[in-house]
Amino acid sequence: MKPKFKQSASIVALILALGVVTAVDAAKDDKVDPALYQGLEPDQAAEQLLEKALVQAGKGTWERIAVAQIYYLSGNKERAEAIFDGIKKKEAGDWMRIARIYYRAGDWDKAKQTFDRVMDMAPKDEDWLAEIGAYYNLKGDRDKAEELFNRSFGLDPDNLYNTLSAAGSFLGVEER
Questions:
Q1: What is the DSSP string of 108-169?
Q2: How confident is the model at residue 163 (pLDDT cuts 50, 70, 90)?
Q3: Is the confidence at residue 21, as pLDDT, over 60?
Q4: 174 by DSSP, 3-state: which?
Q5: How far is Cα of residue 99 from the mean position of the Cα atoms in its chain?
Q6: pTM score, two decimals?
Q7: Which of the four pLDDT bands, split at 50, 70 and 90, describes residue 23?
Q8: H/E stretch holding 165
Q9: What is the rounded CA–CA span in Å between residue 96 and residue 152?
Q10: 3-class secondary-structure state, position 45
Q11: DSSP string computed for 15-55
């Protein structure tokens, strides 16, 4: 009797485990259902899709910043900031992405503060120094821009893309 009992118990345990896996997979539900947008007003469709995107982003930092970007650039800055604030351990790259969002939205003061934070965290990242220098130049602060270009080119004097960032900024062209 004991061998059959062990076999039955194993089968029951396997069935329970499969049920748990199925339930967890169903709870995740990353799939986009057309009911989220079809026939809805644009604002309503966007909101439902953005909430789904947040589920899809999970705990991914860059992914959550990407969702927040849509909120921020569409004018829902409060919701975007709440998502930014929900990211507890932001690295320099995360701050750089957030600063770019502020810049694109025309919030230069916030962008500048955030770019400065990036430079404090990663003072030798020549790519970011050139890019941030370009933003300063595009906003009319040529002295700060040239200081950042000098730092960038001092670290990597033959980087084509950094050269293009600097050049474009003198012509009013944003590389990104």
A1: HHHHHHHHHHHHHH-TT-HHHHHHHHHHHHHTT-HHHHHHHHHHHHHH-TT-HHHHHHHHHH
A2: very high
A3: no
A4: coil
A5: 10
A6: 0.81
A7: very low
A8: helix 160-170
A9: 16
A10: helix
A11: HHHHHHHHHHHHHH--PPPGGGTTTS-HHHHHHHHHHHHHH
